[in-house]
Each structure stands twice: as structure tokens, then as C-alpha cells.
From TrEMBL:
This is Transcriptional regulator, LysR family. GO terms for molecular function: DNA-binding transcription factor activity; transcription cis-regulatory region binding. The keyword Transcription regulation applies. Pfam families: HTH_1, LysR_substrate. SUPFAM superfamilies: Periplasmic binding protein-like II, Winged helix' DNA-binding domain. Belongs to the LysR transcriptional regulatory family. PANTHER family: HTH-TYPE TRANSCRIPTIONAL REGULATOR (PTHR30126), LYSR FAMILY TRANSCRIPTIONAL REGULATOR (PTHR30126:SF94). Keywords: DNA-binding, Transcription, Transcription regulation. Residues 3-60 form the HTH lysR-type domain.
Length: 291
């Protein structure tokens, strides 16, 4: 049996979408035709791509090793479809952490689309772990993260410098002095991002570095919810300076100078073979060149 482009596309779509039914729908195949095509591909390759457990398909180790090569083929095919190989067009699939997606990405996307008007951005927002997962499963072409990450299949490139800021409400007992000591860090309740977010990872590392232990009051997934909770007096907060700049300027929140090392580096996440996708590579180069 031959290995056709359609079968490879089916494998890639199934791995990306997590369901054969969704992959079949995306490729306009019937369920039975998709199932047969996937079986034929596995026979041709000589190894299973998925383990079948009930209705679920779990990608095998051999499947994971093959996936980057299949995506490389797909990217090369996409590049051949361009009417003018010197132009940029098509869907730009981006996934970004919340701070970047809210305070940096809109301006960057607007500037990029102004140069390449035929590009259609598809933006997904999540925490650092979600960004890594999207890139690993091929759901996005490029990711932007706020926290430290390592992945054997992905390329993680340092990007911009950022700093987290400890803050409180104007009515908090620490607001007048605008300083918080190591002892006070451990005495007050905190409103923080969830585990899996880059912001939380940096904060936890800074606390551990100081040998301190804090009292977690509330764990939230949205920056706006954290800011409002701190304003309501539910505890201290720690977010990127980008996300609280407006509130600091208008007096809605008070910055507290702390002994914590809260500097961090944003990073770009790509597949190691992303240079085969001209649109993704052009956007990557654009981000690196932006001050």
C-alpha cells in the first residue's frame, strides 16, 4: 500500500484534534473511510500510530517521533499552494500566555498584518502549559510564553525581559510604606495565578529562593479577577508590571517594593522544523526584530 498525502494529513489532523471523527470532518472524509485510511497508513509504515482504548486514540511513541516529519511535509505542501511565493498569506495560528496576549500581542499582530494584509491571525490564549501543549500537538504554529519551559520536540527562544510586581489595595496596611519585608511576605494572604501559569512559576521560584512560605488565599486564572480581588482586600497580588500599569498610575493599586527576584524572560515557542513554514518563520523573525 502507498503512503498518500491524504493519509499523512489524516494522521496529523487526528494527532492535533485528538479525535478521528474531528479529523475526518476536517478532511471531508466519512468515519469509515478515515478509519480504513489510518489502518492502511499504519500497515505501510510498519508500526502503529495510535493505541485504541475504547473510543479514544492515544498517540504511540513511534507516532510522536513521526509527527514532526509529517508536519514538515504538510508545511512544504502549504508553501507550494501560494500563488505568489514572494507573498505572505493564509492562517497564522498563534497561542500566547495571558499577559502577552493582552498587553503585547494586539499591537504586534496589527503591525504584522499591516505589512502582510493577506494573513489571517488565529489567536488562542492560555497559560504557559497550554501554549506548550498546543505547539506539541500542532494546534498552533508559534507560541509566546511567560514562564520557564523545556521540551524535547520544541524550540524555545528567549525574547523580551519582563518583571513581576507585588501589589496591594490602597486601603491595605502596607500601602502607606509601599514596602514589604520577607517576614511580612509570610504574614499576609495572597491572591495568585494558578499552577501551570508562567507568572505563578516565577513567583513560586522567587519565594523558594528566599526560603519563605506564604499563605495562599485564592488561586485564580484571570488577571482581572486577581486585581479586583486585591482591590477588595482579599490579599496581596503579584502580576506582570504590564498588566497593572494602568491601576498603578490611577491609584487603584499600590506597588510594594519586595526582596523577591521577580525578573523573567518571555520566550517564543516553535516546532524545530518551523523554518519550513514560511509564514511562521516570517512572523518569528518579525517578533525577534521588534524592540
Amino acid at each position: 500500500m502507498s503512503i498518500s498525502i491524504k493519509k499523512l494529513q489524516l494522521f496529523e489532523a487526528t494527532a492535533r484534534l485528538g479525535k478521528l471523527t474531528k479529523a475526518a470532518s476536517e478532511l471531508s472524509l466519512s468515519q469509515s473511510a478515515a478509519s480504513q485510511a489510518l489502518k492502511e497508513l499504519e500497515v505501510s509504515l510498519g508500526y502503529p500510530l495510535f493505541e485504541r482504548t475504547g473510543r479514544d486514540l492515544l498517540i504511540t511513541e513511534n507516532g510522536l517521533k513521526s509527527l514532526p516529519k509529517v508536519r514538515q511535509i504538510s508545511d512544504l505542501l502549504d508553501s507550494l499552494k501560494l500563488a505568489n511565493l514572494n507573498s505572505m498569506s493564509g492562517a497564522l495560528r498563534v497561542v500566547a500566555s495571558a499577559t502577552i496576549a493582552t498587553y503585547l500581542l494586539p499591537q504586534l499582530i496589527a503591525k504584522f498584518v499591516n505589512v502582510y494584509p493577506d494573513v489571517t491571525p488565529e489567536i488562542h490564549i492560555g497559560n504557559t502549559q497550554m501554549v506548550i501543549d498546543y505547539l506539541d500537538k500542532g494546534k498552533a504554529s508559534i507560541g509566546l510564553i511567560e514562564g520557564p519551559a523545556v521540551h524535547r520536540h520544541l524550540q524555545i527562544t528567549p525574547w523580551r525581559v519582563d518583571k513581576l510586581q507585588v501589589f496591594c489595595s490602597p486601603e491595605h496596611s502596607l500601602a502607606k510604606g509601599a514596602i514589604i519585608t520577607l517576614e511580612q511576605l509570610q504574614q499576609h494572604s495572597w491572591v495568585l495565578r494558578e499552577h501551570g501559569s508562567g507568572t505563578r512559576a516565577i513567583f513560586d521560584a522567587a519565594i523558594e529562593q528566599m526560603g519563605a512560605q506564604i499563605s495562599l488565599g485564592i488561586e485564580l486564572t484571570r488577571q482581572s479577577a486577581i486585581k479586583e480581588s486585591v482591590k477588595a482586600g482579599l490579599g496581596l497580588g503579584c502580576l506582570s508590571q504590564l498588566s497593572i500599569a494602568e491601576e498603578l498610575n490611577n491609584g487603584g493599586l499600590i506597588a510594594l517594593h519586595s526582596p523577591l527576584n521577580l525578573s523573567r524572560r518571555f520566550a517564543l515557542v516553535t516546532n524545530k522544523n518551523s523554518y519550513h513554514n514560511s509564514l511562521s518563520q516570517t512572523f518569528f523573525d518579525f517578533l525577534i526584530s521588534e524592540p
